[in-house]
């Protein structure tokens, strides 16, 4: 049991480190690519990597497809598009800090949309306002930090969209499908939603 916990913490640390570097990598790529181009190629590569990892088809109930579609729209298309556009207006460090508010928005949405989420505690409310105040201080700290409120607002919008995606993936996980197949299906719909914008 203890080993499983350590493996879980190690996996989380690797995920956080990898995710953190994507802000800087995307900022560098924006010198030669449009935000949507980066997004599209990133998820095409991810889709085929997942296909190689688990080359089987996912057979779902037709009633479940709208949930996969909504997850693809929120978590793949809109979140990353908003994030990438935000990076064209503000600093990568800002986008990464603002993006860290996604769990707070997830808790708020879970409270209002999922009956099992329970009530919001006093500590949560206080913590949420402290975090949001800190983000406001970073975002509107004047021209010396060369920040752009539009980019920061887009980053906050991305965090809200991610919160919807988190609730949708929780619903998808309740279906009991293998994680790789479910993720690949979500990526598929996300890529489809990108095509009109391309």
N to C succession of SSEs: HHHHHHHH
> What low-confidence regions span 5 or more consecutive residues with pLDDT below 50?
none
Which structural class is indicated by helix and strand composition? mainly alpha
Q: Helix proportion of residues, in percent?
A: over 70%
Q: Radius of gyration in whole Å, from Cα?
A: 18 Å
Distance between the termini: 47 Å
Shape: globular
Number of strands: 0
Please report the number of helical segments.
Answer: 8
What's the domain count? 1
Give the overall average pLDDT.
84
The fraction of residues in strands falls at under 5%
Main β-sheet: number of strands, strand sense, barrel status?
A: none
How would you briefly describe this protein structure?
78% of the residues lie in helices and 0% in strands. It is mainly alpha-helical and 198 residues long.
What does this protein structure show overall?
By secondary structure, this protein is an all-alpha fold. The chain has one domain. 78% of the residues lie in helices and 0% in strands. The chain has eight helices and no strands. It has helices at 2-29, 35-53, 65-89, 92-99, 102-113, 122-139, 149-173, 179-197. The chain is globular, with a radius of gyration of 18 Å. The termini are far apart. The mean pLDDT is 84.
């Amino acid at each position: 049991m203890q080993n499983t916990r350590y493996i879980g913490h190690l996996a989380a640390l690797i995920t956080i480190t990898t995710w953190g570097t994507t802000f800087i990598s995307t900022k560098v790529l924006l010198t030669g690519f449009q935000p949507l181009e980066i997004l599209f190629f990133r998820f095409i590569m991810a889709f085929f990597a997942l296909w190689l990892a688990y080359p089987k088809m996912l057979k779902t109930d037709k009633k479940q497809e709208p949930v996969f579609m909504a997850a693809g729209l929120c978590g793949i298309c809109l979140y990353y598009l908003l994030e990438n556009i935000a990076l064209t207006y503000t600093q990568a460090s800002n986008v990464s800090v603002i993006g860290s508010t996604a769990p707070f928005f997830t808790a708020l949405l879970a409270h209002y949309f999922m009956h099992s989420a329970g009530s919001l505690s006093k500590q949560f409310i206080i913590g949420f306002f402290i975090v949001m105040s800190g983000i406001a201080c970073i975002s509107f700290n004047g021209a010396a930090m060369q920040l752009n409120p539009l980019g920061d607002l887009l980053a906050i919008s991305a965090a809200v969209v991610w919160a919807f995606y988190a609730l949708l993936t929780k619903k998808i996980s309740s279906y009991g499908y293998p994680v790789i197949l479910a993720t690949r299906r979500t990526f598929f719909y996300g890529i489809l939603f990108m095509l009109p914008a391309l």
